[in-house]
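Hi R.,

Here's the chain you asked about this morning:
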Amino acid sequence: MEDQLEDVCKTYRERVERLFGLIEETHRLEEEIKIRLDLPPSTRLISESDEKFIREALSQTVVIPVIGERNSGKSSLINEILHCNLVPVEDTGSTSRIVRIKYSAEPYIQVVQRDGHAKAGTHRKLDIAVSENCYDEVLRDLAVLRGDERHDETLVSETVEVGINHPVLECGVEFLDSPGRNENQMLNQVVDKMTKNTIPILIYVIDGNMLLRPADLASIQFFKENCPRTTVLYVCSKVDVDEQAERMDMPSDEEDEEPWQPNRSSSDLSKAALVESDLCRHSILDEQSSKYFHPLSVREVRISRKARLCAHDPQHELLLNFQQFKSSLALALKHYYEGVLSSVESRLISCHSQCFGAFKIKHSLIEEETVEMAVVLQNARKLGKDLHTMVREIVFKNRLHLVEVIRRAVQISTEKVKETTIGRPSKIAAYDILLSLPDVQTQLGTSIPDDDNFLQLHASCYEVRNFIVNTVCSQAEKEFANMLKRHITTSAGHVMGDSIEALDNPTLKRNLQSIYQLLSYDSDHIESTRSSLLELVSSLVEVSKTAIAKELRQVYSVVSMAEMALNVFQSAESDARIANIDHIVSTLASELDFEDICDCIIDSCCNHLDERNKIYLNALDNMEAFAAEMVVQEDQHYLATVSLLISNLGLVEVRNHGLNFEVTRGKLRKGEELNRGKHSRIHLSKHDWNLPSEHIIRVVQQQGEKWQQNLCSLYYAFNCVPSEYLTKIYGWTFPSPDEIHIAMERADGSLDQLDLSLRQRLMMMLDVVKGMETIHASGFIYNNLKAKNVLVMPDKTAKINTCKGRYEFLHGRSPYADIQQLGELLLWIHRPQTTMCGPVSLLGINRPSDISVGVWSLIKRCMADNKQISVSEIRGTLESILNELQT
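And the predicted structure, written out as tokens:
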């Protein structure tokens, strides 16, 4: 087939484009997975090594060296493969530089130096169309080395690069027109270096006039040893006996050494037969590899092709031989391409597996965070309890010190008030009002004199009293604060620090912040609880200050102050008010009980600590409740996200598998149509993949959302654990982007189409339950069980049609939907006229007479709102029911 080589290259290019599209889709899914699952940005789901391998494999160039001894016909062969007179073939002693022929939209020619750069002054554009002109005049000056030039290491190591617009070359194929290894040592080094790179295909040309020379044999053995994985095609050229061709292919006049003289003693054999015999004799060819040997006369092929000879023409056979050679070259290239595509598809499937691994990563993170949050909250609760206990102990242990603090504060206040000149009170009228209060009037009555001096004395008592109260509170506040800071820092500081650190846990704060937002809850329990810990000392100091002031004001009540003023007034002369300040201070100081004040402080602090601890524990209770709610919400969000992502990823993987099946097995071809449904058609198969005879081709065409659902179902079905109770899927291909052909086993029909006995249907129901167990063991929920999705096989067993499921990710959930549908199917088996009816309450209370007690009980349990039955229990119950029927 003349265009088979181009067809192979074209098919490969199309498949590469499809693969690049799948790679880009995989990258988009990788980013979507990372965003939706909130994975760290640094997370790589597709490894750098996999991505590098894929891109390098799909971008690599296939270099096909054409090697042979001088004047063996290599250049003529390349010209004929490409249908152009590109490489010079006549009137040259040899093609001593390697010529690399590659693709270029704009034809050019240049010499490339050893360092890979173009040699200055050698680049020339070739503006003439390939099909209408030859390039050998342009190429001759650059490719051919003569005389001493052929021994110049720099010149020999240079390569002539030719770029032309050709469909085969456009696919990344390049041809090397290279001499053999025996022209000179420098050229041998250039050729040897070439073999260090991967060479998938090598064409070795043997001069049919010269037969298999020792130099040919040495070169062939060298390449077989150094390129063991390379497919070598052997071409025996010049098999015609045309005298002009014989003369044209005589050795060059520039030959220094005596030419090889072939042994033609076996004149009864053709040139090709002699060469093939020698190759076999040297174990280069055998019966298996003889298909790689091709006898050709390129000159006659060119003449025959241009003359368009008929099949009965004697020279037509030469043209067929050349077509067989091109077919062999195309098959070798196809085999190599299939290997490349298969390896890339395997890596891409591995990348998809890594993407699936992200779901496990996220699930593990959720579980770790759940455990971490529980531990953090439990630790914070214990630390809070320890801190509460320790601070209470600190307050109690420092009681004596507190008494001394109060005593010293009172002493300082009395000394300061004596040093302070209390002037004429400015608020006599305000203090006078206090004398009219009911308590004062009740206890003192008319004994209070109506005298300005008394009123001034009464006001002075209040001025002194206020001075003492304020001074004692201020002095005690400082001393108490210093004491608390000192003792809490040394004794309870680490506990407070640990408590704050526990509440600052990033996982706790992040997740609770999310749940607050989710529940529209404004209170930030973490921040408020943390603040209460940081403000513990200041709050206790404030409480103690308030307690002291309260206690002092209770001691210095309005009645006691009125009595004190009255006593001083009655015992002193009216003009001795200022001298009586010392008496007022002494009297006020004597009223104070330091022990009572201290106890009041301790009680207030303890009450405050108890209240603060209650609030702290309540906050932790709320956090734990929110954490539990978060687990539920996170799990629901995770399942919804995973279902979406698996569907998207499944679509990509189905296409990738389809391409892989096409590459490794070929395209599926549909036969006669058997059945046509709303969304698919069933066809016979032409047995392209050597599948069992009982299989069909299901054809699905793109129709809105149903198309994606079908592809997702196919993905889940293909990833189910193999089971005799699930339909077998052998593979699929995409003949076009909007059509898929699925090879699957053939059934007699669905459960709702066949006339079966009750016992047969019950036996099949047991098969369905076993199939459902397998689907659940695969990690999926089927979610679409009905009679028409149960296929009856030729042996009267039943299988779930896995292509019809509306799958969900199981993820530890109970498969309530499948259990419900099992109950509905069991009811349908007994009453096929009954539609799938839903909740058990719709079935009625009384058992129908045609349904046994055991079956009715099983149906009710399956369809109950609160399902207390597993699929394995359903299987066991059915087996017992069937055993009872048999007995």
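The CA atoms of residues 199 and 228 lie 10 Å apart.

Let me know if you need anything else.
M.
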